[in-house]
Specification:
It is built from 16 helices and 13 strands. The protein has 443 residues and is an alpha/beta fold. One of its GO terms (molecular function) is transferase activity.
Length: 443
């Protein structure tokens, strides 16, 4: 191997030469969250559209059969390679070794942090460029939580003490760091990074465009949903119960977070319910309560029923299963609006031109600032402010739905313009290095 990643034992794999560079996308962090699922096809769509001469290779962290089928159908030209990197830099599969050897630039996909820091660190030793495509770096969460304004105030005073040396080195060596929220951008600029171009760049979810018309039609028919005449409501707990999702034995921290969730669940879901009640009473149209994360199926079934007013209850439907990202996207597209305690469902709605309201909880990261950064600050609220701002934002959409959709479409276009610049920058970083070899690791 000539480019710095050691080859595993077994048969070798080679990539044919192309005129354009090869972009390796490290993404697909988990599948129990349709928002996390959407990161990858969103990034692939942006790169395929705005860097059409490049070969795209996806190196997923965690991907299920449903997601593989989705990506194969939507991006048949994209190779998906599995495997991990050992501490010595060797790949665990021949396919991964070949992909690493052929790649001209590594792109770390959108996410809540430098998720794949160890992989990026190994890649950096090759001397080839890498960067980050719409990430947040929250130096406070989960130790400190609060409103976005409170978090931003604290972040501005942290400086280099807010990140460890290993993460700092990875960020400092990047060719580009696109921050999906302006607080991350402020924080990273305060670190005095010498190498990368640090700039705002939206979460790639805004470019997610995969649909499942058949599944969505069946869901709408089952629940009596008419296009343009229903609301989607997305619930969330303050701390995601990952131990339940993964079937793990709860830790002491899990028990504490579960207790905290129980303290606030009725309040937070009550804010969401207030928006549902206001919608039903104003429009006479139904509400679909749907999950962004798998655990929220049971959460919705438990909390939305008898607690709702008698006149509203018949209009509320609770989705009784965890759906796919394309099905959710299609149902969001055809909704009148989306109100969500989760951060990515509003971005998915936005990508289809559907107005959405995001209700941020204090345990969520600073990524919530992205809605103001995208130009829809009035569609983002803090849960601590109660139901009034949420209902007001929703009523504004209902007052003039044509204007609300036009505004959403304009925001989407601005986000896509920014994604175009991001993809072109990735291409520019890779192009001069195409066919260039780097020294092996350890030399």
């Amino acid at each position: 191997m000539q480019r710095g990643i050691s080859e595993p034992e077994g048969a070798s794999v080679t990539y044919p030469a192309t005129n354009g560079p090869t972009i390796l996308l490290r993404s697909s962090w988990q599948t129990p969250n349709i928002g996390d699922v959407a990161h990858t096809p969103g990034a692939l769509r942006a790169l395929a559209r705005y860097a059409p001469d490049a070969r795209l290779v996806l190196w997923p962290v965690a991907i299920g059969a449903r997601e593989r089928t989705m990506l194969a159908a939507a991006f048949p030209q994209v190779d998906v390679v599995d495997g991990e990197l050992r501490p010595d830099g060797s790949a665990t599969t021949p396919e991964l070794a070949a992909a690493l050897d052929a790649a001209d630039v590594l792109v770390h996909g959108s996410g809540p942090s430098v998720v794949a820091a160890d992989d990026v660190r190994v890649w950096a030793a090759t001397g080839r460029p890498y960067g980050f495509f719409g990430i947040s770096v929250d130096p406070l969460n989960p130790m400190f939580t609060g409103t976005l304004d409170e978090i931003e105030t604290m972040v501005r005073s942290l400086g280099r003490g807010g990140v460890d040396d290993h993460q700092l080195a990875v960020l400092d060596g990047a060719a580009f760091v696109y921050c999906r929220d302006s607080v991350t951008e402020v924080f990273l600029r305060s670190l005095g990074l010498t190498g990368p171009a640090v700039a705002f760049g939206p979460d790639a979810t805004v470019a997610f465009d995969l649909l499942d018309e058949e599944a969505a039609a069946a869901t709408k028919a089952r629940h009596g949903l008419v296009d343009g005449e229903y609301l989607c409501a997305v619930p969330r707990l303050r701390w995601t119960p990952y131990f339940r999702i993964r079937g793990e034995v709860p830790s002491p921290l899990d028990f504490r977070r579960t207790a905290y969730n129980e303290l606030w669940a009725d309040h937070d879901l009550g804010v969401l319910a207030a928006a549902m009640v206001a919608y039903v009473r104003r429009t006479g149209h139904p509400v679909l309560v749907a999950p962004e994360m798998s655990y929220a199926v049971e959460l919705a079934e438990r909390h939305f029923g008898d607690a709702l007013p008698a006149d509203v209850r018949p209009y509320v439907r609770v989705l009784d299963r965890f759906w796919s990202a394309p099905e959710a996207m299609t149902v969001y597209r055809d909704a009148q609006a989306v109100v969500s305690l989760e951060c990515h469902s509003p971005l998915m709605a936005l990508s289809q031109g559907t107005p959405a309201v995001y209700v941020r909880q204090p345990t969520d990261t600073l990524k919530g600032r992205m809605f103001a950064d995208l130009g829809v600050a009035h569609r983002g609220t803090e849960i601590g402010d109660g139901p009034v701002p949420v209902v007001t934002a929703l009523q504004r959409i209902l007052d003039d739905p044509v204007a609300a959709r036009a505004e959403t479409a304009a925001v989407r276009e601005r986000a896509h313009d920014r994604l175009r610049g991001m993809a072109e920058h990735v291409l520019a970083c890779a192009a001069p290095l195409t066919r260039r070899t780097a020294p092996p690791l350890g030399t």
